[in-house]
Automatic annotation (TrEMBL):
<keyword id="KW-0808">Transferase</keyword>
<dbReference type="InterPro" id="IPR013132">
    <property type="entry name" value="PseI/NeuA/B-like_N"/>
</dbReference>
<dbReference type="InterPro" id="IPR020030">
    <property type="entry name" value="Pseudaminic_synth_PseI"/>
</dbReference>
<feature type="domain" description="AFP-like">
    <location>
        <begin position="292"/>
        <end position="348"/>
    </location>
</feature>
<dbReference type="InterPro" id="IPR036732">
    <property type="entry name" value="AFP_Neu5c_C_sf"/>
</dbReference>
<dbReference type="InterPro" id="IPR013974">
    <property type="entry name" value="SAF"/>
</dbReference>
<dbReference type="InterPro" id="IPR057736">
    <property type="entry name" value="SAF_PseI/NeuA/NeuB"/>
</dbReference>
<dbReference type="InterPro" id="IPR013785">
    <property type="entry name" value="Aldolase_TIM"/>
</dbReference>
<dbReference type="GO" id="GO:0016740">
    <property type="term" value="F:transferase activity"/>
</dbReference>
<dbReference type="Pfam" id="PF08666">
    <property type="entry name" value="SAF"/>
</dbReference>
<protein>
    <submittedName>
        <fullName>Pseudaminic acid synthase</fullName>
        <ecNumber>2.5.1.97</ecNumber>
    </submittedName>
</protein>
<dbReference type="InterPro" id="IPR051690">
    <property type="entry name" value="PseI-like"/>
</dbReference>
<dbReference type="InterPro" id="IPR006190">
    <property type="entry name" value="SAF_AFP_Neu5Ac"/>
</dbReference>
<dbReference type="Pfam" id="PF03102">
    <property type="entry name" value="NeuB"/>
</dbReference>
Length: 348
């Protein structure tokens, strides 16, 4: 069990829903604050930012490997520097965004992308940290975050089991056991068939930590399936409207979809319950709708049960139907009218 702020995370608690703002503020603080309001209205538990600048995450180089030329890439035709210039959240906005979250009852934290970002976020007293998939092999950064003693959520996109083991060990070696791993597919958007959610219970068993999902698919279906498989945290990018544009808008949820995510994942969690055989308390009245054995015609004492006067019908207040063949040919003790439930007391 993990605690972030006043929110407990674990199988006994409804899923912890993180609304990832990323760069969907489109470089407007007003829009960023509005996104916080929308996340609160949708019922999210937390808003997450990303803390970096273009200069702390890449080099001001616009050629070769620093330029996105892959035709299939969502951000093709841009240099990494220019992309991060568009996407980053100005550090001077963080306090205002976090204050708005607190005002509306939301938790707020961020993904630091280098050690200076951790130092900055510590001045804001964030309740937790998120390590992004592309940083899950950055052991010095992970150790720096672990030393804060605060809960850490690590996305696992692209990471091998060995790489995840290194990350988990790095956290624990710093004396921090407050760790959540998020199953993640680092494509934007991701597809359901490439999500491999069967990894969730395996990852929980392998690393003995809480497991969630960083979900880049469209809709709520994959997140709901993840909760059914034991995910206790769901992270989704969100925006005011995909039509507004922005670096992450094409795979981000709109407010009504975020609200649906909150509702659907909670229903999925509620439905897991516990191992149950036999009728639940709520089902017990329905037992009367089972078939059972009834007297099908008026009978006199000494009459023999036949296929005509021994009926297998609803409701279920007579003997179970498994005794039908046994009772055929048996004698009834007393008079019985049509519609009498058959009991052993009636049989000689």
């Amino acid at each position: 069990m993990i605690k972030i702020g006043d929110r407990l995370i674990g199988k006994n608690y409804r899923p912890f829903i993180i609304a990832e703002m990323s760069g969907n503020h489109n470089h407007s603080l007003e829009r960023a604050l509005h996104l916080v309001e929308l996340a609160a209205q949708a019922g999210a538990d937390a808003v997450k930012l990303q803390t970096y600048t273009p200069d702390t995450i890449t080099l001001d180089v616009h050629t070769n490997e620093f330029f996105i030329s892959n035709e299939k890439d969502l951000w093709k035709g841009q240099s990494l520097y220019n992309l991060y210039q568009k996407a980053y959240t100005p550090w001077e906005w963080h306090q205002a965004i976090f204050d708005k979250c607190e005002e509306l009852g939301l938790l707020a934290f961020s993904s630091p992308f280098d050690e200076t970002a951790v130092d900055f976020l510590e001045t804001l007293n964030v309740p937790a940290y998120k390590i992004a998939s592309f940083e899950n092999v950055d052991i010095p950064l992970i150790k720096k975050v672990a030393r804060t003693g605060k809960p850490i959520i690590i996305s696992t996109g692209m990471a091998t089991a060995a790489e995840l083991d290194e990350a988990v060990r790095a956290v624990r070696e710093e004396g921090n056991n407050q760790l959540v791993l998020l199953k993640c597919t680092s494509t934007y958007p991701a597809t359901p068939e490439n999500s491999n959610l069967a990894t969730i219970p395996h990852m929980r068993e392998l690393f003995d930590v809480e497991i969630g999902l960083s979900d880049h698919t469209m809709g709520t279906g994959v997140s709901v399936a993840a909760v059914a498989l034991g995910a206790t945290v769901i992270e989704k990018h969100f925006t005011t409207a995909r039509a507004d544009g922005g670096v992450d808008s094409t795979f981000s949820m709109e407010p009504h979809e975020l609200k649906q995510l909150v509702e659907d994942t909670e229903r999925a969690w509620q439905s897991i319950g516990h191992i149950q055989y036999g009728p639940t308390e709520a089902e017990k009245p329905s037992l009367n709708a089972r078939r059972s054995l009834y007297v099908g015609e008026d009978m006199k004492a000494g009459d023999v049960f036949t296929k005509e006067n021994l009926r297998d019908v609803r409701p279920g207040l007579g003997l179970p139907t498994k005794y039908y063949d046994i009772l055929l040919g048996k004698t009834i003790k007393t008079d019985a009218i049509k519609g009498t439930p058959v009991s052993w007391e009636l049989v000689l």
